[in-house]
Amino acid sequence: MSHRSESSIIRRSLLTSATVGALLLAAPALWAQAAAELSFHRATVVRAPLDTAVPQSSDLFALACATSASCSAGGSYKAGGGLVEAMVVSRSNGHWLRAVSLQLPMNAAAQPFAEVNGLACISAGNCVAVGDYQYQGGSGKPEAFIATQRRGRWSRAFVPALPANASPTASNQLEGVSCLRTGYCAAIGNYRDLAGNEQIVALAKPVAGHWGQGVEVTAPVQAGSAPRAFMEGISCTAPGACVAVGPYDSGTNELAMGAVELTGTWRRAVSLRLPPNANGTFAALRSISCTTAGSCLAVGAYSLGGDGAFRALGVTESKGHFGRAFEITAVPGGVGANPDSELNHVSCIRHGPCVAVGFVRNKARHFVAMYAIRSAGHWAAAFEKLPASAATGRSQDSELGSVSCSPTGTCTAVGFYAATGGGNRADAASTG
Q1: Strands 153-154 and 142-150
Q2: Average pLDDT of the segment spanning 73-88
Q3: Per-residue pLDDT for 214 more than 60?
Q4: What angle do CA 155, 161, 165 make, to 5 degrees?
């Protein structure tokens, strides 16, 4: 339904609580107990906008929670006539409201194929969403947008100013955004330059002011002279101090990269070292979460072996340097030996555990939503408890796209599941 869904490994053809956290740091043997205490309740259906098609088809890719009871989420849905529109939805006082269609820029095409890819909140009801849509006369090319929520209401999205060398024939996307409680925000994505190359773009909004013009972040050396680079995740710990991750095309393979911003200047992105069992044909980082400057965890997936198998991937960043990426082997029980898995998003609690979400392939070869918890260096995983309306049998696929943990340790996750009667439905689950 969306380019973000299509970019997931399952849809690509591979080439061939804070208290609990403190307890964990003091006694690593209790990490499993903490994982149990962070377990998610059964997911609830997030009601799609009133103009949704029948059967419904909706998905949530992005989420940010300012408090344990106040969250904003975004994604896409299929409206009447088959139009794919961007949608946003709020959780207030612990209850999810009905989603609404996000107003796109005035030049949106009749079929906009729009979606919200990233979301961040400054405070409850004051958030920023980024994504892309197709524009009139664009011949199917995407254009990036930014939308702002103030006091619970979303304004019409606008097109940000791209770098001076951006092609006038737009092909631009924003994938991730990070905001501080001071009001500072930064976004990351990609744009097409005058030479037709797909470059990394970063934008920033000062504490008091408007979004500035985008700047190019230089792709890794291995990307060559005609790069195809796509940053997807970003996390900031101070104004001008951010870390971003994503995939890039080396010319023959798609590999993982990361970039660090210090004192307002982005360093050149670097290619990341993969696990020893990687076959080197595919690796991508989807999300990163930093609790303090120099303490970050990113997640994604990579390919291994010659049979198209893929595994969840993790990597840490500390003081401007990325470690070697590692395989995340934790999966729920009952899925068989060495199942395929991918993590789409991660959220870390300061002085506590990190929670990541994605999917795993079960014995019946269905993709099933899961979450994984990292505490004291150990990982544990469990299935999402799907709503009662979830399909079974051949149509039971589900996936979690985003997770956000509040400073108090309550976490919320969003995604989609295949529903009985056809179509996908957006859902959400929380630990609190």
Answers
A1: antiparallel
A2: 97
A3: yes
A4: 160
pLDDT in tens, 138-187: 888 999 999 999 999 999 999 999 999 999 988 999 999 999 999 999 99
Which H or E run includes 33?
helix 31-37
Cα angle, residue 229 at apex, residues 247 and 349 outer, rounded to 5°: 45
Task: Please count the CA atoms within 13 angstroms of the CA of 398 that sit on its side-chain side.
Answer: 32
DSSP state of 3: H
Is residue 415 pLDDT above 70, yes or no? yes
What are phi and psi for residue 35, nearest 5 degrees? -60, -40
Tokens of 54: 């029948």
Query: At CA 256, angle to CA 177 and CA 260, rounded to 5?
Result: 50
- Of 127, 271, 292, 100, which is closest to residue 205 (Cα–Cα)? 127
**Strand residue runs (E) in 227-337:** 228-229, 233-238, 241-249, 254-262, 265-266, 270-271, 278-292, 295-304, 309-318, 321-322, 326-328
Q: Give the integer Cα–Cα distance in Å for 146 and 84.
A: 18
Instruction: Give residue 170's Cα distance to chain centre.
Output: 23
Q: What's the one-letter identity of residue 277?
A: N
CA-to-CA separations, 413 to 85, 285, 382, 389, in angstroms, rounded: 21, 18, 13, 18
Q: With contact defined as beta carbons under 8 Å apart, do 19 and 27 qualify?
A: no
Of the candidates 128, 130, 134, 136, which has an alpha carbon nearest to the alpha carbon of residue 114?
Answer: 134
Task: Report the C-alpha gap between 81 and 49 in whole angstroms.
Answer: 14
Tally of CA atoms within 13 A in the half-sphere of 66 that contains its CB: 23
Query: pLDDT per residue over 312-371, tens digit each?
Result: 999 999 989 999 999 999 999 988 888 999 999 999 998 889 999 999 998 888 899 999
Q: Distance between alpha carbon 372 and the CA centroid of its chain, in Å?
A: 15
In angstroms, the CA 412 to CA 431 distance is 7
Residue 131 tokens, joined: 């994504």
Bond prior to 276 in cis (omega within 30° of 0): no
Count of C-beta atoms within a 10 Å radius of residue 320: 13
Task: Give this prediction's pTM.
Answer: 0.92
Residues paired with residue 134 on neighbouring β-strands, in sequence order: 142
